[in-house]
């Protein structure tokens, strides 16, 4: 609607785009704390930090370009003034592949790099799934050894624990794409029959959600869900369905038992045999590194990146029960993942460069920790100096400067409200201490310090306002000259 001469100007609606969120200090501190803890784990395994631009040329992202005229499906893209399309990075791996190809001759090989930063996905958001979020990755480019995959798995487990997930509340589920490829070859599905292959793989991927019966229906004619919607199946014959279901039943109580079951089902195929051998080498390395079944488990039903991964794949599953803000149960599922991708650098160089890596979804992990009741401790705010007398502002500013000079975050209240509102402000700022200097204190050369954290604790044991005023809990009077030392002592307590 256009504005008339006498109408008020229209105002934009203040709103956040879907899939994007604002983050205040506590959320930012939680995420940055996780990032630094995880990066330190990566560095302890010998990985070098690398930072690449937020934008990459769209053709460097390859697999996310269904439409060359406007390549913005899955990514946020724009056309540069030279006619080339650029996209906000979808992950941190595609930029790594471009960097490695661009600097191949000067890099040590294998090249171990770790990185953290925001990534953007033009996809439908969901619970704990945003369109902008942080990832924290570690990748090894140049090694085809299965020990490199085992190292990524063990390092990922260490990273998840360092981020704040207690042992026992997560597990790294491990599989190998070659197992599924061997199975497909065994039941006679041609490599060129993409529709049937995807139908089988997607059915297997739903095992944990639909159970064996649901998967069996999806492998055949199809399945009707509770709402009445029908999903067309892969169309396999009964003999082929039986072999696929035997494959889904190969997960056993231990990694070695799972390996033995896999050898029975797909070990007689070329790719299946390679997959079993690689998992056996990974198992030996994990055992040497001290990772038992409680931290890393073989689950052949894991399906990841159908056009991306070429060998071992793994994902970190959060086992903790989580609830949303309405008290309803939420299944976060995977909070980190990785695997072997030997073809990514080849897009640039024309030759294979073996690579494997692990990626932790930082934003998703922090959301999951919060939902599971393991949120990082709230960040303490600054010491707040109340401004009770307008004529004394210079002295208040001086006190704040002295505290900051001693390394203590401090601020002077700069509003126009009275003492009660200023105390409420300090509480909302999560201030640990309030400094009070009225005319009485100033004339005597003193200041009053109020410990808000201790006061909140003591308030629970005081029954009346009269007792509160009389006892003045967590409040002390100190000489103005001893302000810094007194605040330091109170903060230590």
**Could you name the ranges where pLDDT drops below 50 across 5 or more consecutive residues?**
64-70, 458-465
Number of domains: 2
CATH architecture of the largest domain: 2-Layer Sandwich
Q: How far do the termini sit from each other?
A: 61 Å
Family: Belongs to the class-II aminoacyl-tRNA synthetase family.
GO molecular function, one term: histidine-tRNA ligase activity
Enzyme class: ligase
Domain Aminoacyl-transfer RNA synthetases class-II family profile: 18-382
Could you characterize the architecture of this molecule?
With 493 residues, the protein is of the alpha+beta class. The protein has two domains: 25-371, Bira Bifunctional Protein, Domain 2 (BirA Bifunctional Protein, domain 2), CATH 3.30.930; 383-492, 3-Layer(aba) Sandwich (Rossmann fold). The protein is 40% helix and 19% strand. It is built from 18 helices and 20 strands. The protein has helices at 25-44, 58-61, 93-102, 146-163, 177-186, 194-205, 207-219, 238-248, 255-266, 270-288, 346-349, 362-371, 393-405, 419-428, 439-444, 452-459, 465-471, 483-492, and strands spanning 48-49, 55-57, 77-79, 85-88, 111-120, 132-141, 170-176, 222-224, 230-232, 296-298, 312-318, 322-323, 329-330, 334-340, 355-361, 383-385, 410-412, 433-436, 446-451, 475-479. The strands form five sheets. Strands 1-5-6-15-14-11-7-10 form an eight-stranded mixed sheet, with helices on both faces. α13 links the parallel β16 and β17 (410-412). α4 packs across α10 and α6 (194-205) runs antiparallel to α7 (207-219). It is elongated. The relative contact order is 0.10.
């Amino acid at each position: 609607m256009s504005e008339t001469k006498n109408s008020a100007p229209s105002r934009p609606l203040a709103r956040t785009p879907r899939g994007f969120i604002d983050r205040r200090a506590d959320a930012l501190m939680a995420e940055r704390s996780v990032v630094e803890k995880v990066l330190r784990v990566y560095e302890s395994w010998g990985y070098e930090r690398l930072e690449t631009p937020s934008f990459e040329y769209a053709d460097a992202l390859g697999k996310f370009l269904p439409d060359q005229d406007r390549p913005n499906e899955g990514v946020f893209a724009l056309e540069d003034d030279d006619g080339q399309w650029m996209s906000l990075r979808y992950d941190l791996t595609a930029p790594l592949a471009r960097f490695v190809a661009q600097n191949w001759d000067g890099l040590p090989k294998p090249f171990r790099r770790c990185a953290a930063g925001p990534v953007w996905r033009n996809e439908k958001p969901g619970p704990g799934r945003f369109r902008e979020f942080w990832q924290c990755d570690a990748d090894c480019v140049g090694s085809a050894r299965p020990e490199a995959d085992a190292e990524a798995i063990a390092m990922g487990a260490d990273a998840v624990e360092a981020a704040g997930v207690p042992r026992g509340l997560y597990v790294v589920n491990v599989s190998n794409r070659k197992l599924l490829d061997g199975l497909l070859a065994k039941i006679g599905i041609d490599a060129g029959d993409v529709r049937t292959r995807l139908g089988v793989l997607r059915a297997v991927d739903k095992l944990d959600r639909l159970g064996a019966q649901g998967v069996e229906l999806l492998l055949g004619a199809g399945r009707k869900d509770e709402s009445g919607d029908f999903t067309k199946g892969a169309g396999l014959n009964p003999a082929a369905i039986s072999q696929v279901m035997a494959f889904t039943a190969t997960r056993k109580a231990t990694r070695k038992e799972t390996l033995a079951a896999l050898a029975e089902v797909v070990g007689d195929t070329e790719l299946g045999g390679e997959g079993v051998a690689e998992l056996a080498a990974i198992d030996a390395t994990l055992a040497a590194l001290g990772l038992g079944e409680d931290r890393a488990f073989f689950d052949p039903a894991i399906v990841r990146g159908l056009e991306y991964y070429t060998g071992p794949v793994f994902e970190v599953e959060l086992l903790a029960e989580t609830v949303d803000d309405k008290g309803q149960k939420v299944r976060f599922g995977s909070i980190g993942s990785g695997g072997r991708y030997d073809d990514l650098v080849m897009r640039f160089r024309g030759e294979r460069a073996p690579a494997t890596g692990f990626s932790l979804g930082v934003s998703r992990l922090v959301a999951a920790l919060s939902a599971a009741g393991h949120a990082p401790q709230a960040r303490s705010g600054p010491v707040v100096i109340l401004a009770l007398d307008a004529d004394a502002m210079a002295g208040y500013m001086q006190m704040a400067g002295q505290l900051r000079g001693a390394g203590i975050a401090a601020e002077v209240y700069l509003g126009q409200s009275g003492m009660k509102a200023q105390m409420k402000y300090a509480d909302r700022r999560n201030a640990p201490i309030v400094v009070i200097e009225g005319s009485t204190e100033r004339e005597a050369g003193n200041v009053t310090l109020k410990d808000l954290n201790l006061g909140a604790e003591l308030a629970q044991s005081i029954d009346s306002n009269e007792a509160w005023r009389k006892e003045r809990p967590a409040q002390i009077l100190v000489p103005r000259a001893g302000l810094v030392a007194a605040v330091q002592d109170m903060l230590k307590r």
